[in-house]
Amino acid sequence: MAGATLRIHVAEGIGIQSSGSLLGGNNLFVAVKLDGTACGKSAAIKESGGRFSWDLHLVVPCQPSSRMLQFEVKRSGMMSSSYIGGCVVEVSQHILLERQVLPIWDSSRREVGKIQVSIVPDRLASAPPSVPGGLVNRAGSFST
Predict the structure, then answer these.
(1) Contact between 33 and 72 (Cβ < 8 Å)
(2) Contact of 74 with 108, CB cutoff 8 Å
(3) Which of 23, 52, 116, 144 is most exposed, with the fewest beta carbons within 10 Å of its own?
């Protein structure tokens, strides 16, 4: 991917199968990596109605050699975190996911839930171009 920037939003985890531990409870977080390098992680959130609402927003610069985004769901513990499951999305110049629900898999290749993700290249996330000459139609934007 030729030096682009990706805007990533991990909205929530859905139906994630995780049993709490005595030391860590059932608070889960999601971590995002680009080619194995950490990009960011959410706060640890407690399940509510079968969902974990992380609402994680990241802006991730990519190098031309960037190949994959990894999403990892982990349980927060007092001493360390434990891996629940994850998924990988290939990075290409054509990547565009909007509110896509992706399965997450544990180390045994068993589906353990889903995450809702949006990945938008920065060039598509920017504001629409203004009208030539700098004019902007503001009709209807004033109240009387």
Answers:
(1) yes
(2) no
(3) 144
User: By 3-state DSSP, what share of the chain in percent is helix, strand and coil, each rounded to 5?
Assistant: 5, 55, 40
82: tokens are 């434990």
**CA 42 to CA 27: how far, in whole Å?**
11
Residue 16 and residue 84 in contact, taking contact as beta carbons nearer than 8 Å? yes
- pLDDT tens by residue, 51-89: 999 999 999 999 889 999 999 999 987 777 899 999 999
Tokens of 100: 């896509």
Q: Which of 72, 139, 61 is nearest to 112 (CA)?
A: 72
Predicted TM-score (pTM) of this structure:
0.79
Q: Which of 76, 93, 101 is nearest to 20 (CA)?
A: 76
CA dist 31 and 48 (Å) reads 19
| d(C-alpha 74, C-alpha 83), whole Å | 5
Dihedral sign for Cα atoms in the order 8, 12, 14, 19: positive
